[in-house]
Design goal:
Helix content of chain A: 40-55%
Number of domains of chain A: 2
Structural class of chain A: alpha+beta
Number of strands of chain A: 9
CATH topology of the largest domain in chain A: Gyrase A, domain 2
CATH architecture of the largest domain in chain A: 2-Layer Sandwich
Strand order of the largest sheet of chain A: 2-3-4-8-5
Shape of chain A: flat
Largest sheet of chain A: 5 strands, antiparallel
Largest interface: A-D, 56 and 56 residues
Oligomer: homotetramer
Order of helices and strands of chain A: HEHEEHHEHEEEHHEHHHEHHH
Radius of gyration of chain A: 24 Å
């Protein structure tokens, strides 16, 4: 990740801000505020603003439940209770805003989370940066043979080199032709003064999906956790997981008690179906219990066994 | 509005908080943070938290439009432009949280604005306060004869006294019976130790719609302005307008430039239909233009004329 | 539930409609379309319209996954897979619209589900029906002593009679005074021709929270299932559960395969936290596992044991 | 637009469906149901399903306003009134679902409308079609010099030919390399049996933004009209406008009365600011009124004059 001098100055200016406020603050998050946390080869995540902390969740829950919540002795106990029982509204009382630089094909996954506010860099108005995501060799994997949307073995040797070359060459060539059509380079130089440039809203269509874009993305804590439970998961595409993991770390700094409950109940937790519960109950009670008598489909049986790292897999 | 000693202490504690932050702050809004601003006879509005200020709108707009926005010379010019052209997303980048105490029949209007986060005091858990909204005599109006949902002339004299007495008596009696059914008073005394109390979730159904409830309500600036353009409007019910006007004043303190643009383009502005535009154009050009030739319905014609305070009303 | 003659005629007219369409239809749901299904003492639920069926979920999932979904042999298998893995968007492709008559205090719970479209009867425009919810004796329960928001033992004998009398008397008296203030009865008779009536938007505040209102409520299948998983649950207040159960039955008619998956994975299913999973794993493997060594709080331990109907409760 | 034989068969099958229903139907929309309406060079729009018609809007408005709406004599008058006063909820009672094939850079604009349900073809699971948008020569315009995000003069001659060649060559080369990396062609042939293919979720990043994708997109009528008022507008990018215009035509077939009101009040209408209103009023009253005394900025003055096609432009 390389920042322009202009960006570096902006970040330095923001980080030297020092205001007084009566609002609750999150001291650990303040420490990394505005910082460009690197992701992938050219991307970053910056926390730009936030509202509330763990105490805001407690505060609004106590308004809801009135004197009824007095019985729960601690704030931490209350937050865990809320998380365990999937109470949602108190977690909506905290808000965070990120500035993200990310490849377009990842932005397209990300935007599917609709309950968020977004301002994206517009390639109708302005020329996109000359930066493309090229995967690291250790992430260059073959299509999984077992999972329709996952990755399998690493690709290496000359096949890996060839792929990386194709990606680089195609992205660069297409960007150069983008500039040619615009009749203007990324840093604002007119190429041929005697000609007009193609409208930006048209020229952009020549760019590849690994071009970097950027946006401001703002959401509440509930929806952020929903995002992270999907995108920081091992089934998520590596490239979006790289962002989600950095964000998870900012959540830890921002609302540490909520983070802990999230890890216990969401990230490390699991769901049991009605039939799955019966199987587990039998197993605990030492009754005979196998795939044939479980009422589960083969796929369900295997998923259940692998959740507990049991080896009874059916093929 | 009377606050309990507990509430007064909480507010005093919150107002004496003094934190350092790198986040942008809104100094004028900080001054009234946490304060209970009185509304109606027992209600209040408190600003509990906020995120962003006018500069946050500009910041995110400039990310969207990139170098393209450099041409607009001032932040204020940019905010006006965004408001005029109904750009929406930059105004979503600011967030505010209110603590509101309000009568239930007003809460029911308010909650229809869905793009907000809410935590309401739960009468399943806790006993509601013994407070009811009784209108001031100067707001006691008859049903309008011209507008199906509005107010007409004031009601006064003995009819007004009778109405106010009915409202008071019915609210109080119903509350007393609520306590009787609960077998517990609002301040926690058991009435008859030998009996159980009715479940709170049931007893509450005996309360009148002018009982006060309270909630935390959090929304972004765009949706707040949509709320205010409907609820601070002269067609809104007086009781919700009373809240909206206080909130409009907090917007003025929070984001003064946006406030000004909102007043000019939304509050004081108007819409013209295609046909209405033709009528206005003719009028400007000094052409003959009357109801018969306008193509407007009687109702549309009258609405158009009254928008400009013209007297050509058709009956 | 009593319907007016006007309502009966409207329903009969709607049910005799017979149109041709190329859209997918749900024959079982068609049979009960428009019918007023009774709920509580005066409420009802009517299915007014719907869009899509089980095949619409499959159709949109197959668009997403393209040829990738060909491998899953059956539609039913695909719907189960989507439900199990909490895929959300395919279930949003079906839509349903209900007409509901319900007590106001239940409407206030219901409306907290924001992702729905609502048109409620407006008491600013019109006079509310003279109908109030009075619980059946078998639902008249005391406040639970163990659960802050639940019901405990039944209340009976003279205490029950007294409560029911209070509820009836207060609701009726308040309604009569509502008419008095309006200077108009529910069926449109002016009471005193020499007087004006109080504005409807004001008079309504005298009504009790068990007054019936009605609305059109439209939502997609995903959000309907979220609603039902909370409101058809045993922890939900009985009065809203009564509605949810009727609605669950319309889901069964409408999208039978989805209904079955919902019952297995959501309604009958459960969640395990990270720590809870470890406990269960130990139990299956026959290792010693008790509350002290579990790392769970007392509350969590008890919730876990009771999920499996095990008796190891800690007090 | 070329459809595969498989697609043609699916459409024919759907169009030959003939079900009976008690739901309201829209006969004109039924006629084009499922049909692939061509847009751009390879795109299409298909109406897949719908719920409600003009009468559904009236029905829900009448529930809201109760007997209060009886006074408005006609359904058409009521719909116009609702549109004019920006009533929103009754228009949410109709729903429509489209199947759309569109270039990715347009999909990225489109998805910014968040209040909709979407299922997009997943390039993690499946291989994208080998189709790219190449503009027609008559739409190949230069960047506007006056409008930062618009198009100016046409580009023609050899410069146009060069641009079109670049677009074609780059899209095709990148697609071919996409297949090479996948080690599989678009129609499922393995290229080199001795090698693995790159994971689809990675290979897709090499594609250009004019590649075609497709999705199911479902929304309610209110949000559809908001979409169309922005995207069928002359300021919208031509390529998305091409879709919006086809959709506008389906709205005309579906809900003709609403369509008419929309054209009059939204599409052909305009907004006046508070200051703008004063200017217009003066003009009507024949008072002197020029830019200097108007209180408007230069930009606002020009926008106002051009709304009425007046020539008093300030530079």
């Amino acid at each position: 990740m390389k920042l322009t001098n202009e960006q570096k100055k902006e970040i330095k200016d923001q980080q030297s801000q020092n205001f007084k406020t009566k609002r609750v603050t999150s001291p650990e998050l303040e420490k990394v505020l505005y910082e460009a946390l690197p992701v992938l080869d050219h991307g970053f995540i910056r926390v730009i603003d936030y509202m509330g902390d763990d105490s805001s969740i407690v505060q609004s829950a106590r308004v809801s439940y009135g004197k009824g919540t007095k019985k729960v002795s601690t704030d931490s106990g209350l937050i865990k209770y809320l998380m365990r029982h999937r109470h949602s509204t108190p977690f909506e009382m905290c808000e965070i805003k990120y500035h993200v630089k990310l490849p377009i094909f990842i932005a397209r996954q990300w935007i599917r989370h609709r309950t968020a506010n977004v301002n994206e860099y517009s390639a109708r108005y302005s020329i996109l940066d000359k930066e493309f995501y090229i995967p690291d060799k250790k992430n260059l994997a073959a299509q999984s043979t077992s999972n329709r949307q996952g990755r399998g073995n690493l690709i290496n040797g000359s096949q890996a080199d060839n792929i990386l070359n194709l990606l680089k060459e195609d992205a660069e060539r297409n960007y150069n032709n983008y500039e040619k059509m615009l009749n203007e380079t990324f840093d604002g130089k007119i190429i041929d003064e005697s000609k007009q440039g193609l409208a930006r809203e048209l020229a952009r269509m020549n760019l590849t999906l690994n071009s970097y874009t950027q946006w401001y993305w703002k959401t509440d804590l509930l929806n952020l956790l929903n995002f992270l439970s999907l995108r920081a998961d091992s089934h998520a595409q590596y490239e979006i997981r790289a962002y989600a993991e950095i964000m998870l770390n900012t959540v830890k700094k921002w609302v540490p008690t909520t983070y802990e409950a999230f890890i216990d109940y969401r990230v490390g937790g699991m769901e049991l179906s009605s039939k799955g519960k019966k199987v587990i109950k039998k197993m605990i009670q030492g009754e005979k219990c196998d795939y044939e008598s479980s009422g589960l489909s083969k796929r369900e049986w295997n998923e259940l066994m692998s959740s507990f790292d049991f080896s009874e897999k059916i093929v």
